[in-house]
Write a structure and sequence with these properties.
globular; mainly alpha
Length: about 525
């Protein structure tokens, strides 16, 4: 008792709340396995359609490999330049996980294999931390609590239920089931959905590890995780450090003893460095300012979205807190979860106060997790009551109905994504052959001019060269560059920047280069040709 308030709830006996390390690891492994369903589909579906699987289940994923390459091409540097920015891009970026991806690529593995090797590590890391976090807060000493762990991993909202209802009422096709989830569910608005995406699994693992360390009063570890996450991701890093600052400020005022002044001061220092780097220093560079303007998207998190995402866990949290006369807020963990939710939710609504920079990017299930842990005792009590129903058929029906509601969103989404994924990256045989040739014949400093959007984007992933038009959102002045590429293949108009050694053209098979370029055809197939000056090789 410090300052008249308990620092934390009385913990469960160690044997009750912390099973063996072997049990926790097996639980993490089994609970993580559903996250691999879309990846399995990413190999099976292309094979069925005579396409080449790239191993990337979403459009942005190859860009992390390109960033990783940029640390090592043409020689190792601690920072990298934007691989989609063109010539002389300043080396101003750093993330620990992209450096790891760059290191793994030095073994010569296929980019898809490299990324999914990282993905498996990130998946098991995040799942292991999540299991330990759940056991610390909830425990696993009863059947209801163990079922609750499944619900934490794969519970969701009511997007699918609402979509199904409207599909039945209005006669919409089943594809309308996901019409209410932004980008067909790829914003991943609960915990388990994020395990599908390797970088998000990594971010979520660090986020939970920092807060787990905070709960256990391992303050140095909590701050270290926050610092690493700050380097790794501007959105999640900012959210975590603001949670730590807000929580430590309240705890210091209360005098609970859960944190000390040094913890808060170091957290503030990390926040200052975070803002200075992302909002001030990077914006000193013209290419980054252009990207910043392109990233200022009004991807909002409106009520129709967050209500559907949070209504189940929010209802459980409200049920627990309603009528308690703030009694539960005497528990430091509840204060932490409440601050966690309020900070994340406020960031998702920043468009109400300033120009929006992808507000929904702050959600990613972090608000969902905070509400889950507030309402977890209600969920466990409900599950426990269902398990005690005497009639077997009624007990099984009640549990099936309850779990069906909780798990429906992710179960339906995983099944759908396995068989139909609009964001899947796969290649025709001709595209794959072109990338294979480029991979083994280009060098660092070369530039590829390509009309095919997918090949053009993947150049920096598969080769040490760059592409004039790359990632949709990470290429400065993307629309202008796209038009410049279109003009060279339709009108023969060549930019001055391209009249230099090392410029390679990937064209439609029937295209003939302007005479002024003096190009020769190096490789071709039924769809594409590769042209380069004779003196390049």
């Amino acid at each position: 008792m410090v300052g008249g308030m308990p620092a934390l709830e009385i913990p469960l006996p160690r044997s009750a709340r912390s099973p063996s390390a072997g049990w926790m690891n097996w639980a993490a492994l089994l609970l993580a396995l559903p996250a691999l369903i879309p990846l399995a589909g990413a190999f099976i579906v292309p094979y069925q359609h005579n396409r080449v699987a790239a191993g990337f289940i979403e459009y942005d994923m190859p860009s992390y490999l390109a960033e990783g390459r940029a640390y090592f091409d043409p020689g190792f540097h601690l920072t990298y330049g934007n691989p989609y920015a063109g010539y002389n891009s300043p080396a101003i970026y750093f993330q620990p996980h992209t450096m790891l991806l760059g290191f793994l690529q030095q073994f010569g593995l296929d980019p898809g294999v490299t990324f999914n090797l990282f993905g498996l590590l990130a998946l098991f890391f995040a799942a292991s931390v999540a299991v330990r976090f759940y056991l610390e807060v909830v425990g696993a000493d009863t059947t209801a609590k163990r079922i609750g762990l499944v619900c934490f991993f794969w519970g969701g909202g009511v997007f699918t239920l609402v979509g199904l209802g409207l599909a039945l009422v209005r006669g919409h096709p089943l594809s309308s089931l996901w019409q209410f989830e932004p980008t067909w569910g790829w914003w991943m608005l609960n915990f388990g959905r994020n395990l599908v995406y390797p970088t998000e699994a990594y971010y979520h693992g660090l986020f939970l590890l920092s807060l787990l360390a905070l709960i256990r009063r391992r303050l140095a570890l909590s701050l270290a995780c926050a610092a690493i996450l700050s380097c790794s991701h501007p959105f999640t890093g900012l959210a975590l450090i603001l949670i730590l600052i807000a929580y430590s400020g309240i705890e210091l005022v209360i005098g609970s003893g859960t944190v000390n002044l040094r913890f808060m001061l170091v957290a503030i220092l990390i926040a200052v460095l975070h803002v200075t780097y992302y909002l001030i220093w990077l914006n000193r560079f013209a290419d980054h300012r252009i990207l910043q303007s392109q990233w200022q998207k009004a991807w909002l998190y409106p009520p129709k979205t967050f209500i559907a995402a949070l209504i189940i866990v929010g209802g459980l949290a409200i049920w627990r807190l309603a009528g308690s006369s703030f009694h539960y807020f005497r528990d430091a963990r509840i204060r932490l979860f409440a601050i966690w939710f309020l900070v994340v939710f406020a960031l998702t609504q920043h468009n109400l106060f300033i120009r929006p920079i992808q507000p929904i990017h702050f959600a990613h299930g972090y608000d969902w997790m905070a509400l889950f842990f507030i309402g977890a005792p209600v969920l466990i009590a409900t599950l426990d009551s269902s398990l005690k129903v005497s009639r077997p058929w009624f007990r099984r029906s009640t549990l099936a109905l309850l779990l069906g509601l909780l798990l429906l969103d992710n179960s339906a989404w995983l099944a759908k994504t396995a068989v139909h994924n609009d964001y899947l990256v796969s290649l025709t045989n001709s595209q794959s052959a072109i990338l294979h040739w480029l991979r083994w014949n280009l060098k660092s400093g070369d530039m590829v001019i390509c009309r095919d959007g997918l090949i053009s984007y993947l150049v920096s992933t598969y080769t040490p060269a760059q592409s004039w038009q790359g990632h949709e959102h990470n290429t400065p002045s993307m629309e202008q560059r796209h038009n410049e590429v279109e003009r060279v293949f339709s009108e023969g108009r060549v930019l001055p920047e391209w009249k230099r050694p090392g410029v390679v053209y990937v064209s439609p098979a029937a295209w003939l280069p302007p005479a002024e370029l003096s190009l020769e055809r190096r490789y071709g197939n039924g769809e594409f040709s590769i042209w380069a000056p004779p003196q390049d090789r």
